[in-house]
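Quiz preparation item.
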């Protein structure tokens, strides 16, 4: 219980503000740790804070982490262009499948924010398509690695922790 504006203990706007601050601090902590872990280990580290409570979506999120890590390490270890391209194409296709599965779950459970969530997915697809196009045009693994770490990893972590978590809470 917290302090009430009416002079007593109870649920109040102050409690809600503390809850929002706590959630914001937790998110900032996870994002900071993710960035530190990425720069320190050149990868994207999974932890249970990303779990939603749906086995299919959680499994796919873990797989997306693994695919991003594979792609980043393929770029870093000097893998040939064809291997990087195959991994990138697989990541793109898997992401589209994941979005479809996640949206089907939202429809099935009548998730109230489905349309907005679907639009977030739709907005991200051309971003990824542009990364693929730029890679195909210049074959730069170094630049692709930087772009994946600064664009894809940031978007994926933010999306799971801020948007997908809402689905988990709704379920």
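Solution:
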């Amino acid at each position: 219980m917290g302090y009430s504006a009416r002079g007593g203990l109870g649920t109040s706007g102050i409690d809600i503000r503390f809850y929002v601050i706590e959630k914001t601090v937790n998110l900032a902590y996870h994002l900071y740790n993710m960035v530190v872990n990425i720069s320190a280990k050149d990868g994207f580290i999974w932890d249970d804070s990303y779990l939603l409570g749906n086995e299919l979506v959680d499994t796919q999120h873990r797989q997306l982490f693994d695919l991003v890590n594979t792609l980043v390490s393929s770029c870093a270890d000097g893998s040939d262009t064809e291997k990087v391209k195959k991994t990138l194409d697989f990541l793109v296709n898997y992401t589209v499948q994941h979005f479809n599965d996640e949206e089907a779950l939202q429809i099935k459970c009548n998730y109230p924010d489905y349309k907005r969530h679907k639009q977030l997915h739709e907005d991200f697809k051309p971003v990824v398509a542009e990364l693929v196009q730029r890679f195909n045009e210049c074959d730069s693994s170094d630049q692709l690695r930087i772009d994946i770490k600064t664009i894809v990893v940031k978007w994926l972590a933010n999306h799971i922790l801020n948007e997908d978590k809402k689905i988990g809470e709704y379920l």
